[in-house]
Amino acid sequence: MAGKPPFADIVAGLPASVPFVPPEETERRTGVTINLRLGANESTFGMSPRAWEAMQNAASESHLYGDAHCCELRTELARLHDVKPEHLIFGSGIDELLGLIARAYLNPGDAVTTSLGGYPTFNYHVEGYGGILHKVPYRNGKNDLERLASTAEKTGSKIVYLANPDNPTGTWFTAEELQAFRSRIPDRCLLVLDEAYIEFAPAETGPPIDPEDPGIIRTRTFSKAHGMAGARIGYALAHRDTAAAFEKIRNHFGINRMAQAGALASLKDPGFVRKVVQSVAEGRREYAKLAEELGFSAYPSATNFVAIDVGSAERAAFLRDALWQRGVFVRVPGVPPLNRCLRVSVGTPDERKAFARILRETAEKAMK
Q1: What percent of the chain is helix, strand and coil (3-state, nearest 5)?
Q2: Whether 40 and 154 share a structural domain
Q3: What does the radius of gyration of the chain's CA atoms come to, in whole angstroms?
Q4: Quick check: helix, strand or coil at residue 65?
Q5: What is the pLDDT of residue 19?
């Protein structure tokens, strides 16, 4: 019998885990069917009708590879962001882009700074390429910018990661605060600014895009406000030399024709995205009011979800599991103090009404 080929040392030493257990897997394991899918921050408002039509038309060409350079989409995004096309990097969502960033910048043993309880897929990729994570706890429900910068300096980190607006809290920083943070990061440390939820944030949230700054990569996605999570398409804004380096390692045919067509059509339908953003803002206010009525509190949010602090990790776990038994999928962050929270996506008005009713009924049991 042939011997078993050994895995690479990095892979062999990794825990048997993934960043998120998909809700479909939990459905199969528990036998519960999801009726309200409010745990993955997908947009239940759907996508632009123009995007839907464009994707249907492109489906007839799905026997062909997609344009490896995403030329039409690249041109439109360059126009919208006032950058040259060579400053854009494309991937199958921000998740793939984070993996490419880790691969491009990290050698085994290199230090990386992030927040304790921040987006776990980034950590997943860092560890997958042998990086060493240094995690800074949140402070007052927000990323601790001062400690993130000082930790990056003390550890000699190659990368510091910050989501703005944040996942899982929904909190955010202004452009001025981010520029001050940027100035405190060591020169040879890359800032990865994850802006997956930027469309939902106040206008003053994002600092001006400087395509000539080699020390920052900003990631964006069509999964949230554009309602195209299943199409798997995202992009990054970076220095042209950074983008050129990614050409050496990226999956050149990783974005299919339907995704490219849908994303381009969605960009040309800004009115649809504005309506989604407006409805989400209304839903955030409803969730905050609901939390107050139940004796809980909601974190201020500039995303398409709200983190509701229910008072304790035990109560949060109880409510999550009880809601699941009634077909409501929400998530609870994995580390203190964030594990006191239910993270709930802002759904349609009908979904929000149904969620409020079920949470009220479930919370009565939790408070007894």
Answers
A1: 45, 15, 40
A2: no
A3: 21
A4: coil
A5: 81
Residue recorded with tokens 């997943």 = 124
Residue 315: closest CA among 291, 332, 299, 335: 332
CATH code of the domain covering residue 202? 3.40.640.10
H/E element, 190? strand 190-194
Which parts of the chain register pLDDT below 70? 1, 366-368
What pLDDT score was predicted for residue 1? 55
| Alpha helices, DSSP H, located in the chain | 9-12, 23-30, 49-59, 71-81, 94-105, 120-128, 145-155, 175-184, 240-246, 257-267, 270-293, 313-325, 349-366
Q: What confidence score (pLDDT) does residue 4 get?
A: 86
**CA-to-CA dists, residue 267 to 42, 285, 286, 321, angstroms:** 18, 27, 28, 38
Task: State residue 211 phi and psi, 5-degree precision.
Answer: -70, -10
Of 215, 237, 268, the one marking the end of a domain is 268
Co-location of 143 and 169 in the same domain: yes
41: domain CATH number is 3.90.1150.10
Nearest to 96 by CA among 252, 202, 262: 252
Q: Is 159 left (phi over 0), alpha (psi -120 to 50) or beta?
A: beta
Query: 237 and 141, same structural domain?
Result: yes
Domain identity same for 253 and 335: no
Residue 84 main-chain phi, psi, to 5 deg: -80, 150
Burial group, residue 278, by CB count within 10 angstroms (0-12, 13-18, 19+): exposed
Look up the domain containing 70 and give its range: 49-268
Residue the block writes with tokens 């601790």: 144
- Residue type at 211? P
Q: Report the distance separating Cα 287 and Cα 56, nearest Å.
A: 35
Same domain, 287 and 259: no
Domain count of the fold of the chain: 2
Q: How far is CA 350 from CA 56, 302, 355, in A?
A: 27, 21, 9
Closest CA to 152 of 135, 131, 164, 174: 135
Residue 4: inside a domain = no
